[in-house]
C-alpha cells in the first residue's frame, strides 16, 4: 500500500534550538530532493546543502539525507532536511517543500504510513507515541520494549496457539466419522487450559504495562469540607487546590502528577459529594463520579463529623478500585496517626493540615505503585489492549463452554475465531479506519 501524495512537517519541537528537522515522505521526494540539492542525492548520505526558496534566496544551510523506499521509517521515499532550529527558517523551509509538491502532514501521519506499509505493527506504532510522552524512566524503558516488539511477540504467540486449537476443532467437525472423538480428547482440554493460562498471564502483564504508561490514577472523594483539597496539596507539596472553610469550594476536577518510585501517580481532587442545589456544583459532582469510575485507587476522605453520610459514600466506591479510607483532621481530637486494615478497606488516621500521619498514606501509595513496579522485561500497553484481551478471554471462555457443555464444535470454533480477531486488533491485523484515526490523531505532528 503506497500513498500517492507526499507529506511534510517540522519534526522537531516548536521553539529555538541547535538543530531543526523538516521531514518529507512520499513519491515526490526524489524529485524534490534533487531540486533542493541541485543534483541527485546519494542514498543515506549526509549532503551539505544550501536550502533556497524559489527565487534562489537562501533560507539556511544544513544537511539533506535521502532514505530511498522501502528502507525508511515510513517505507516510502523520505528526505530529512536538517537546518538550524529557528522556527522562522524551518517554516520557510517547510513552505518551500510544500511549494515543490508536498502537503502538510497530519499528526501521526508518518507513523500511520509506517504502519500501513508494514514497517511496524499497531502496538509498536503506539509505543512510539508512548515513548515520546513517557514521564518517567520506567515508562520510557517499557515503551522501548513495546517498540522493539516484546508485547507484539506475545500477542502473536497467543494468536498462534488459538489458531492451532481452532484448526484441531475444525478438523474434528469435518471428520465426524473418525473412530476417535477428537472433541472429547484430553489433549483438547489441555490445550484450552494452556491457552487460558497464557492469556491470563499476558492480561496481567498488559495491565501492568498500562499502569507503567499511564501511571496510577488516584481519585480523592468525600463530603464537602472533609479536607480533600488540603490532602491533595499536602501530597503534592503545593498549594495547587483552593482550600477554604466553605463547603463546595472545589467544583471542577483538579489533577496533579507526583512521582513515586519512578511510577507517575495522578492525584485527582474532586467536588465534595452531596445533594447540591447549585448547577455548577451539580456538574462538579457528576464529574467527580465519572473520575471515580476510572480510579485505580479511591481515597475516601472524612472528618468523622457525619459517619452515616460517609457510609453511604463508601458503598458508592467502584469495586475495581483499591480503597483507602482517610480519617482526616486528627489534630482536632489529638488522636494519634494510625493504620488499620478492615473488611471495607485500609483505614488511615491523619491530618492534612499538620501533616501528622501523612507518611502513612505516602507509604500506602508507594506500596500500591510498587505493585506495578516493573519486573525486567515489562512492556508498555494501553487501555485498548486490555479491552481487546478481555474480549479474547470472554470468547475463550465461551468456546470452552460450548465444547464441554454442549459439545458444539462449530460454536467453539467460531468463538476462537472471535478471539483471534480480538488479538488481531491489538497488532492491527484487523482495524477500522475509525480506530486508526483515533490512535494516530493523538500523535505529534512530524511523527
Ligand atoms: N483542623 C483541620 N482542618 C483541616 C484539615 N484539613 C482540612 N482542614 C480544613 O477544612 C476545611 C475544608 O478543607 P478543604 O481542603 O477545602 O476541603 P474539601 O474537602 O476540599 O472541601 P470542598 O472542596 O468544599 O468539598 C478548610 O478550612 C481546611 O483548612 C485538618 O487536617 N485539620
Ligand atoms: K471547602
Ligand atoms: Mg476541595
Automatic annotation (TrEMBL):
Cofactor: K(+)
CDD domains: trmE, TrmE_N
Residues bound to GTP: 225-230, 244-250, 269-272, 351-353
GO terms, biological process: tRNA methylation; tRNA wobble uridine modification
Xref: InterPro entries: G_TrmE (IPR031168), GTP-bd (IPR006073), GTP-bd_TrmE_N (IPR018948), GTPase_MnmE (IPR004520), MnmE_dom2 (IPR027368), MnmE_helical (IPR025867), P-loop_NTPase (IPR027417), Small_GTP-bd (IPR005225)
Highest taxon listed in the record's lineage: Bacteria
Cofactor note: Binds 1 potassium ion per subunit.
EC number(s) recorded for this UniProt protein: 3.6.-.-
Binding site for Mg(2+): 229, 250
GO molecular function terms listed in the Swiss-Prot or TrEMBL record: GTP binding; GTPase activity; metal ion binding
One Gene Ontology CC term in the entry: cytosol
Stored HAMAP family: GTPase_MnmE
Family in the record: Belongs to the TRAFAC class TrmE-Era-EngA-EngB-Septin-like GTPase superfamily. TrmE GTPase family.
Protein role: Exhibits a very high intrinsic GTPase hydrolysis rate. Involved in the addition of a carboxymethylaminomethyl (cmnm) group at the wobble position (U34) of certain tRNAs, forming tRNA-cmnm(5)s(2)U34.
Complex formation: Homodimer. Heterotetramer of two MnmE and two MnmG subunits.
Name of the featured protein: tRNA modification GTPase MnmE
Source organism per UniProt: Dokdonella koreensis DS-123
Gene: mnmE
Amino acid at each position: 500500500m503506497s500513498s500517492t501524495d507526499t507529506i511534510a512537517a517540522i519534526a522537531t519541537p516548536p521553539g529555538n534550538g541547535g538543530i531543526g528537522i523538516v521531514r518529507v515522505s512520499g513519491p515526490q521526494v526524489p524529485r524534490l530532493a534533487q531540486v533542493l540539492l541541485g543534483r541527485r542525492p546519494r542514498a543515506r548520505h549526509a549532503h551539505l546543502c544550501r536550502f533556497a526558496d524559489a527565487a534562489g534566496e537562501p533560507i539556511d544551510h544544513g544537511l539533506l539525507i535521502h532514505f530511498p523506499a522501502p528502507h525508511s521509517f515510513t517505507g516510502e521515499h523520505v528526505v530529512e532536511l536538517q537546518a538550524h532550529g529557528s522556527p522562522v527558517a524551518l517554516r520557510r523551509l517547510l513552505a518551500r517543500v510544500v511549494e515543490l509538491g508536498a502537503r502538510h502532514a497530519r499528526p501521526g501521519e508518518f507513523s500511520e504510513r509506517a504502519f500501513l506499509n508494514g514497517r511496524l505493527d499497531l502496538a509498536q506504532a503506539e509505543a512510539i507515541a508512548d515513548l515520546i510522552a513517557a514521564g518517567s524512566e520506567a515508562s520510557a524503558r517499557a515503551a522501548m520494549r513495546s517498540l522493539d516488539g516484546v508485547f507484539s511477540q506475545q500477542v502473536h504467540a497467543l494468536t498462534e496457539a488459538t489458531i492451532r486449537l481452532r484448526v484441531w476443532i475444525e478438523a474434528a467437525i469435518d471428520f465426524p466419522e473418525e473412530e476417535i472423538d477428537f472433541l472429547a480428547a484430553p489433549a483438547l482440554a489441555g490445550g484450552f487450559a494452556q491457552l487460558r493460562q497464557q492469556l491470563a498471564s499476558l492480561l496481567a502483564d498488559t495491565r501492568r504495562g498500562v499502569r507503567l504508561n499511564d501511571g496510577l490514577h488516584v481519585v480523592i472523594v468525600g463530603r464537602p469540607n472533609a479536607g480533600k483539597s488540603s490532602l491533595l496539596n499536602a501530597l503534592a507539596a503545593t498549594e495547587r487546590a483552593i482550600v477554604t472553610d466553605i463547603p463546595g469550594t472545589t467544583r471542577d476536577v483538579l489533577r496533579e502528577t507526583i512521582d513515586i518510585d519512578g511510577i507517575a501517580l495522578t492525584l485527582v481532587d474532586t467536588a465534595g459529594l452531596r445533594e447540591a442545589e447549585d448547577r455548577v456544583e451539580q456538574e462538579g459532582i457528576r464529574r467527580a463520579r465519572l473520575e471515580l469510575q476510572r480510579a485505580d485507587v479511591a481515597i475516601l476522605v472524612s472528618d468523622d463529623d457525619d459517619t452515616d453520610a460517609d457510609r453511604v459514600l463508601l458503598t458508592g466506591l467502584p469495586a475495581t478500585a483499591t480503597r483507602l479510607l482517610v480519617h482526616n483532621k486528627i489534630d482536632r481530637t489529638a488522636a494519634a496517626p494510625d493504620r488499620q486494615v478492615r473488611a471495607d478497606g485500609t483505614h488511615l488516621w491523619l491530618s492534612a493540615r499538620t501533616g501528622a500521619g501523612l507518611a502513612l498514606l505516602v507509604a500506602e501509595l508507594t506500596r500500591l505503585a510498587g505493585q506495578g513496579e516493573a519486573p525486567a522485561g515489562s512492556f508498555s500497553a494501553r487501555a485498548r489492549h486490555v479491552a481487546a484481551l478481555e474480549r479474547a478471554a470472554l470468547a475463550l471462555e465461551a468456546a470452552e463452554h460450548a465444547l464441554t457443555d454442549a459439545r458444539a464444535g462449530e460454536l467453539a470454533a467460531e468463538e476462537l475465531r472471535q478471539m483471534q480477531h480480538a488479538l488481531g486488533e491489538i497488532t492491527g491485523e484487523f482495524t477500522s479506519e475509525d480506530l486508526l484515526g483515533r490512535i494516530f490523531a493523538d500523535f505529534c505532528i512530524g511523527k
